[in-house]
Amino acid sequence: MGLQFRNGEEVSDSIGLLISILVRYPEVGTINFDPKHNVLKFTFILSHRVTEDQIEVFSKEFKECVETFSHIADTVLRDNRLICWEHDEVMLIEVYRDVESLSQDEIAMLISLLYKHFLGILVADENDSFFEYDLDYQEELISNILESIEMGTELPEGKLIAFRDDGKVMVFNK
User: Fold this and answer.
1) What's the burial of 100, exposed, middle or buried (CB within 10 Å: 0-12/13-18/19+)?
2) Computed from CA positions of residues 88, 43, 159, 101, in that sequence, does the dihedral angle turn out positive or negative?
3) Which of 11-15, 68-72, 116-120 has the lowest mean pLDDT?
4) How high is the mean pLDDT of the chain?
C-alpha cells in the first residue's frame, strides 16, 4: 500500500484508510472503523447549532446522492445512516457507511455537500502544507485501500478510532 510506521513496519489497510482520510479531508473530525460490521463512522463538527430543517434538507440530499452512487456502481448499501446531535454549543454530524459500497468519490461528494449546506460553520483542521499532488496521492490511496478491503483483505479484530492531535494523526484500538 505504501504507508509505513516509523519503525519500517507496513501499516494495515484499515489503519492506512483512516490515516489517508484524515490527511486528505481536514473536515473529518474523527473516523471510527468497526470491523465486525465493516462500517466507517465519520464525525463532522459544526461550530454552532443549525435548525432541524437544515439537517433534514442535508440528510435527504446526502441519502439521494449515496443511493445514486450505489446504483451507478451496482453495489448494495448495507449501512447509510446519518445522525446529528448537539453537544454544548456545537453540532456533530455522524455519517455511517459500510466499507464494501463506499468509494473515494462518495467521500468527496459528502465533503462537498457539507460545504454546500454548512459553509462557514463546518470545522476543518487548517493544514496548508499539502501540495496538490499530496492530496491526489491520498485520494489514490483511499481508492486502492477501499478496493482492497472490498476484495476481502483481512481486517483487525478490534475497533479503531482516528483523530488529529496537534497536527498528527492518532489511531487507537478501542
Assistant:
1) middle
2) positive
3) 11-15
4) 86
Contact 38, 76 (CB under 8 A): no
Name the pLDDT band for 1 (thresholds 50, 70, 90).
very low
Q: Would the pLDDT of 92 be above 70?
A: yes
- Cα 69 from Cα 9, distance rounded (Å): 35
Residue 6 CA to residue 14 CA, distance in Å, equals 18
Strands of the chain (E only): list them.
30-34, 39-46, 80-87, 90-98, 160-165, 168-173
Domain ranges in the chain? 13-173
Q: What whole-number distance in Å separates Cα of residue 31 and Cα of residue 96? A: 10
126/129 Cα distance (integer angstroms): 9
Report the distance separating Cα 65 and Cα 164, nearest Å: 28
At which residue does the C-alpha cell 470491523 appear? 35
